[in-house]
């Protein structure tokens, strides 16, 4: 085999996602990657010191020294970081969601009471700017939607491609008992609530699988055409009874949502997202096709099932994300990152940056997911009336 290409990368952001990106870069085998350093508004010193990498005071200084940038910042700065990287002809691995609408900057902005058509227009504008920057660049947007690379979804891709399946109906969900990030509670940082923060994962998987179906059968992806949606803020209901198990300090975002997506071929997908579900992360999508049916369990998976007699015995044992108790039966994930698709997505992105290999999770999928989600927020404001989706 010819020599592996060497690439230098930098991490922007120093929180939760910056940590699993770092871990995943360490597992890349198709190229040689040097993690040069980190830049972040907060937490960068500690992040750099822990890993023995350089601390960059500015994004520009980091861009000077790298080929690939990991955009692991709060969603409100994804456009700024990604476009800055593309302008310098660098590859930008951008965390989900690609972009969004983060308010008007005013003191009194509240995500739950402004006209959602404004969010849709602004989000579409942001998408166009990002796609234009990509077009003008030698770099690419590599969309870090790990669900696309989760082994269960890639196995489903193979089934659809090799059997010529028609996917008729999908339903999927991402749910747990509340995001860890403090900023997540505010629309101005997150660009919305569960519909964008969580729903974008199963939604992107559904959009991806219909894209795969169309591509396999007649070389043309099948895209979403319209969406009906509902959103709710259950933990902010005056009668919500907090027993300390579910996060309930959200400021202006939804915590339960449903998107009903209709594709251009008339087939449908129902996507649930919520922050009110106990018992660990609940991430799955079920695919009903004309020749098979698959239930893709990302979390929990039954790869391992353990009965633990005493909570204290497992005090030093990581079981699975957001599990409330380790006593009794649980489904420990023997390699959670792998089941989630983190190392696989990062491997694919470095192969793309180094050797020009195409990626399954690209800016077009990212753009269609964001366009669908903000159309869904418009629909939710109209109590579920269908809204047409602009696609890219
Ligand atoms: N794919 C997944 O499974 C997954 C999981 C969690 C989070 N995420 C995504 O990752 C992104 C970050 O989330 P997180 O949980 O890591 O958040 P976090 O709050 O843990 O960390 C965010 C980091 O970004 C930094 N930051 C914010 N704005 C910045 C800017 N303009 N320039 C430089 N640094 C900036 C902050 O200082 C902080 O270090 C979000 O878009 C989130 O949706 C994805």
Describe the structure.
- This protein is of the alpha/beta class and 392 residues long.
- It has 2 domains: 6-144, Rossmann fold (3-Layer(aba) Sandwich), CATH 3.40.50.720; 147-338 and 359-388, 2-Layer Sandwich (Dihydrodipicolinate Reductase, domain 2), CATH 3.30.360.
- It contains 13 helices and 15 strands.
- It has helices at 16-25, 44-51, 59-64, 78-87, 116-135, 146-149, 151-163, 187-190, 194-197, 200-218, 336-340, 342-355, 363-381; strands at 6-12, 32-39, 54-55, 68-71, 91-95, 141-144, 167-175, 224-232, 256-263, 268-274, 282-289, 293-299, 306-308, 328-330, 387-388.
- It has a 7-stranded mixed beta sheet with strand order 12-11-7-10-9-8-15. Strands 3-2-1-4-5-6 form a 6-stranded parallel beta sheet, with helices on both faces.
- α1 (16-25) crosses α12 (342-355) and α7 (151-163) runs parallel beside α10 (200-218).
- The longest helix has 20 residues, at 116-135.
- The protein starts with 5 loop residues before the first strand and ends with a strand.
- Bound molecules: nicotinamide-adenine-dinucleotide (NAD).
- Nicotinamide-adenine-dinucleotide binds next to α1.
What ranges have pLDDT less than 50 throughout 5 or more consecutive residues? Answer: none
Looking at this structure, what is the CATH superfamily of the largest domain? Dihydrodipicolinate Reductase, domain 2
The mean pLDDT is 97
Number of helices: 13
> By helix and strand content, what is the structural category?
alpha/beta
String of helices and strands: EHEHEHEHEHEHHEHHHEEEEEEEHHHE
Structure summary, number of beta strands:
15
């Amino acid at each position: 085999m010819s020599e592996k290409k060497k690439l230098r990368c930098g991490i922007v952001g120093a929180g939760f996602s910056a940590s699993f990106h770092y871990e995943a870069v360490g597992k890349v085998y198709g190229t040689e990657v040097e993690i040069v350093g980190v830049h972040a508004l907060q937490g960068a010193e500690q992040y750099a010191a822990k890993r023995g990498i350089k601390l960059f005071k500015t994004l520009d200084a980091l861009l000077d020294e790298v080929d690939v940038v990991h955009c692991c910042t709060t969603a409100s700065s994804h456009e700024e970081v990604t476009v800055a990287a593309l302008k310098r002809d660098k590859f930008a691995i951008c965390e989900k969601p690609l972009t969004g609408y983060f308010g008007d900057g005013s003191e009194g902005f509240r995500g739950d009471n402004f006209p959602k058509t404004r969010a849709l227009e602004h989000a579409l504008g942001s998408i166009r700017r990002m796609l234009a920057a990509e077009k003008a660049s030698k770099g690419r947007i590599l969309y870090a939607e790990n669900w696309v690379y989760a082994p269960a979804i890639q196995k489903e891709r193979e089934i659809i491609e090799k059997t010529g399946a028609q996917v008729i109906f999908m339903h999927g969900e991402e749910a747990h008992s509340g995001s860890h990030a403090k900023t997540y509670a505010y629309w101005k940082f997150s660009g919305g609530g569960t519909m964008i923060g969580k729903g974008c994962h199963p939604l992107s998987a559904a959009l991806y699988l219909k894209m795969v179906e169309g591509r396999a059968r007649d070389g043309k992806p099948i895209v979403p055409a319209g969406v009906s949606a509902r959103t709710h803020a259950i933990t902010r209901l005056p009668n919500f009874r907090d027993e300390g198990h579910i996060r309930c300090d959200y400021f202006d975002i939804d915590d339960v949502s449903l998107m009903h997506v209709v594709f251009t071929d008339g087939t449908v997908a129902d996507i649930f997202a919520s922050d009110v579900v106990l018992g660990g992360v609940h991430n799955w999508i079920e695919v009903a096709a004309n020749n098979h049916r698959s239930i893709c369990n990302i979390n929990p998976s039954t790869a391992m099932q353990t009965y633990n007699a005493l909570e204290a015995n497992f005090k030093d044992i990581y079981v699975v994300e957001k599990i409330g108790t380790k006593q009794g039966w649980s489904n420990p994930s023997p390699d959670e990152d792998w089941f989630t698709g983190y190392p696989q997505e990062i491997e694919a992105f470095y192969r793309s940056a180094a050797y020009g290999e195409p990626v399954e999770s690209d800016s077009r999928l990212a753009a269609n997911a964001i366009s669908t989600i903000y159309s869904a927020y418009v629909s939710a404001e109209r109590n579920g009336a269908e809204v047409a989706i602009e696609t890219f």
